[in-house]
Structure formats: C-alpha cells, structure tokens
Amino acid sequence: MPNRKNAEEYILTLMKDLDSTGYNTQKYLEIFKEMSDTDFHNYMLKLQNKQAKLVFFAPHNQDIRLTTEKLLVIGQKYNVEFFEYLNFTENKDTPDHKTPIKYMVVDLPYKRQSQNLVKKISIPEHNKTIDYLTYQPTGDSKGARISYPELQLLLGLGLERSLDEMVRFRGGDKNGFAAYNSMFLRYGNANIKTLNNYSSGVESTKSLKVYLTSMHISNTI
C-alpha cells in the first residue's frame, strides 16, 4: 500500500527526530511489522479521530528524554505552533482584548483537588497503630492529612520548619518521631534543630528504594 508506506515513513522520521538513539524508531518498526493492512488503516483512523495518540517510549536506565529546546526545534520542522495570541472577553458589551505577545498553549492532564474540610479532618483514637512500610499512623491512629497543594502553600509562605515537621518527623521518620513524642511528653514542645540529631530518614523512602531495587531498577533514593 503506497499510502501505508508514506505514513510509516513519516512516523519513523518523526521518531528519529525525537529520539536520536533509534530506540523509538525500532519500536515502531516492530509495531508496524505486526500490523495487517486492515489493522494499520484502523490505527490511522483512530489517530485522525483523536481516539489514539503516538506514544514516545522512554525506558528506565536509558538516556532517552525530551527537552523543551528540542521540541521547539522539531515543532518548527513539522509546522507545530506552540505559541499563540490569546483573546480575552470580559463581557458581551466590551471588545476582545488580544495579548501583545504570544503564549505557550499545550494540552496537559489535570486533576481537581478535593479540598473539602469535612474530608480532611478526623480525630485519631490513639497513637499506637503504625504502618511499618511507611512508619506513618494508620487505622484508628490516622488523623488529618496534608495534601501536596497545601505543602506548596507552606513552602510559598516560607514555613520550611513546619513543612519539615510534617513530611519528615510526622511523616515517617522512625527515630525522629520517637524523639519528637518524647520531647513533647517531657517538655511540652519540640525543637526541630534538636530532633535532627535523632533523624533516621523517612521509612517510606527506604521502602520505595527496596521496591525499585527488587524490580532491578537502579536508583539513588
């Protein structure tokens, strides 16, 4: 099929431009080899109808990655415009406002965070139940949680010590948390600088390192 040949060459050339190692090109050669003409035709229809997308393979432990600079250069070659003028409309009685410069406009996945207070707060019955993979309170000992957006707010406000307390000493540092509780029982308060002397690292980080290593994925966690 002449059309199939041209389509395959276009995709293979695109992959070669995106990945100079040839890894992605070889992957698509293998994929196309397994496709019948009918399968290939249906695949092209799905791409045309945006029911499927070309996939870029970036395996672990291989230096295959995309950079913004590289994508901008490749975009020019394939007539992909990343930057556009934006038009804003305040209401139907005022004219549109067009931005003086272009801005990058891309499709990105997003997930709305649930920030309902009723879902975020609970009072633990005790402080005895610990998840030994993370060394964080669980079950009846589990209380309120802090979300990533909330952590970003603390960081933006410069509350780095509060952040350190929540994600480290109250977030799975086994020895640090024990010292944290002891200081509160003895003195009624805790000092982050003093607790650093007892810190043993967050257990969930250690657990993740073990999981990745057991999957033969080298890491520096």
Outline the structure in words.
The protein has ten helices and six strands, in the order H-H-H-H-E-E-E-E-H-E-E-H-H-H-H-H. By secondary structure, it is mainly alpha-helical. The protein has two domains: 76 residues, no CATH class; 98 residues, no CATH class. The chain has a two-stranded antiparallel ribbon with strand order 1-4. Helix 1 packs antiparallel against helix 2. The two termini are 50 Å apart. The model has no long low-confidence stretch (mean pLDDT 85).
Descriptors:
221 residues; mainly alpha; 2 domains; two-stranded antiparallel ribbon; two-stranded antiparallel sheet; 10 helices
Short description:
This protein is mainly α and 221 residues long. It has helices at residues 2-18, 23-33, 37-48, 68-77, 117-120, 148-156, 160-169, 174-187, 192-195, 203-214; strands at 83-84, 87-88, 97-98, 103-104, 130-131, 136-137. It has 2 domains: 2-77, no CATH class; 117-214, no CATH class.
